[in-house]
Amino acid sequence: MFHSDLTDFFASAALPGTQTIIEAVQTQGMHMQTRQRVVIVGGGFAGLEAAKALAGHGFDITIIDRENHHCFQPLLYQVATAALSPAEIAWPIRSIFRSARDVTVLMADVTGVDPEGRYVAAGARRIPYDKLILATGAGHSYFGHDEWAKHAPGLKRIEDATTIRRNILLGFERAELTEDAKERDALLTYTIIGGGPTGVEMAGAISEIARKTLARDFRRVDPKTSRILLIEAGPRLLPAFPENLSAYTQRALERMGVTVLTNTRVTGIDASGVDTSTGRIESATRIWAAGVGASPAASWIGSEADRAGRAAVTPWLKAPVHDHVFIIGDTAAMKDARGQPVPGIAPAAKQMGRFVANVIKAERDGRAVEPFVYKHSGDLATIGRKAAVVKLGRFELTGFIGWLVWSLAHVYFLIGLRNRLLVALSWLLTYATFQRGARLVTREPRVDGTAIDRQAGSPGEARLPARSNSQPPSSMEAPQARNPMSQ
Length: 487
Ligand SMILES: Cc1cc2nc3c(=O)[nH]c(=O)nc-3n(C[C@H](O)[C@H](O)[C@H](O)COP(=O)(O)OP(=O)(O)OC[C@H]3O[C@@H](n4cnc5c(N)ncnc54)[C@H](O)[C@@H]3O)c2cc1C
Known about the structure:
- By secondary structure, the protein is an alpha/beta fold.
- The chain contains 13 helices and 27 strands.
- The longest helix is centred in the middle third of the chain and has 20 residues, at about 160-175.
- Flavin-adenine dinucleotide (FAD) binds near residues 42, 73 and 74.
């Protein structure tokens, strides 16, 4: 029986003490009404922070994520390059909220939102809400060339990292196997597209694998002869950092044996290599670190989106036409105080998560809240062992000190003491011995239980076709290789 039915019942009965009971039921009813259902789509940095800030404050919170885990994306490249195992950088979302009885975690792929009906759709399932927080992050953007995705996987999820790890390690294994010199060269050529922090980190780490970790493990090939190419369409690496730090980064990578190709546009990617504005590169392993595109959340609620697909928001991070829908993290197109886009980085996502939790509490309590103000704490990128660039306000750090600051910052932000210790220990071992403990070539399971042995996307691509004189397709649009990670 609902509280209005109970009220009617006692009112009509007009028994002694009825008034008190009616008041009690009404009070209880008001309490029930104020206990709002907050649904958070996405258990990334933004969504988790919002849930943590709302937990224990009188809401029924539901987190929906298509994965069962939260992934610490800043260290994904370490999984992709065999330094860390997936479990060291990912945590089951429900275990994070084990003690929060008001937080329910649902593993489901959200397919749409009905802002009028106030429910989230996950296939045929409907999850109702009073307040909705969309925190679905970003995906890859191939600048209109989605067909490149299967030839050059990007790095966003644990599966991406293990796919890339497999491709990198298979390159060496197959090079050891082949008798064909041309094929061997291509197998030992690693091409990374995009000179932002992820591209720089990947290039540095692959160079360390080739020149240090694997140097003595092969008999028929010398991993040290591998070519590692980092392609950037713009004039310099790490465009969001000051020019001197970009120059330092390029020098450091070149010292590590990486070939840096700036002012070079990628015009085509296929199963055997990459076409660029300066020529063709035969390369068995291609990694995409150039473009980020937001999730489809803007289209779910019929909101405007910017060129990167991020949804327009009000200064309170709300959807412009739906007062009860918040959009945060990489999914939101928000400007900072200087009118620049708030960068797609973890601290910004966390700040937004905390902010909307505060707005939701304030609205319930009848308080006003000032608009969101983003506070930028700095930019960090690692290049490799003993080398990183750090910009914290006016302070700039490079080299070993920079690497130390970068390492401490990342260990500090890891969830849980156990993972902090594990990661710190793994790094210490990698640092001291050059060994990478997670050097596993794993195969993807098929539905029938057998395994797919594939490289860079689709079955059969592992064979390296010797394509030598292909012309770059002239109709392809030139990508703007911009890495927004560090903006
Ligand atoms: C390789 C890499 C390296 C990075 N390095 C750094 C760094 O060093 N420092 C830094 O500050 N930032 C870094 N970033 C950026 C940072 O990770 C992001 O800015 C941050 O993760 C954004 O948080 P978010 O909560 O908006 O999205 P995410 O953390 O991406 O979380 C989104 C969540 O939504 C879920 N989801 C998406 N769609 C659906 C759906 N339809 N249904 C259900 N669930 C869904 C996803 O599974 C995911 O859990 C890096 C990013 C990458 C990819």
